[in-house]
Amino acid sequence: MRLTALLSEHAPTATPATYALAALMCFDAARLPSRVDGDGNLSSLFGQDRSRWDSQLIAEGQAFLDLAATGTHMIEYHLEAAIASAHSTAAHADGTDWDRIVEMYDMLMTIRPSAIVELNRAVAVAQLNGPERGLEAMCAIRDQDRLKSYPFCFAALANLSRSAGATSRLRGTSRKQRALLGIRWNGAFLSNGSMS
Per the count of CB atoms within 10 A, which of 76, 120, 134, 196 is most buried? Predict the structure, then answer.
């Protein structure tokens, strides 16, 4: 954050891309106080105490994001910062503009496609259109091998599956798709979000 602040103070490096990166860092840092619970465990975005988010950093992020919008070229930082802004400015998860977030993930997929972006998009799709649609989006991820070592994948799959009452949904998932996600199916979820 210090480096992006320095870059933004000098004409040659005070570009929309620099402002977008600075905005993203501010939004992400603003949520740090509530990302870990009292026991040191990571808290999901949905379980975080938003009253602990740093409103000054959110305002700084929004100011940087406004400056980032002055250019004609959009890069991944613009979209990632806009997504972070949508989360940071929502009073609660239910008040989040999920339609806008899905749209931004769609745009991000055209700029920098990746399995991680698709996974985050699937979670947003679930919030917008329900857990069944989120599971469908997750199972459609192209480079699922990339997700095998990504812990959030298993937590997201477990949460979507629980929300969907997904015994029937996952039984409808092909064996190949479950194998690509590193999932063995016997109908029971473990508490850590993986399947047994």
Answer: 134
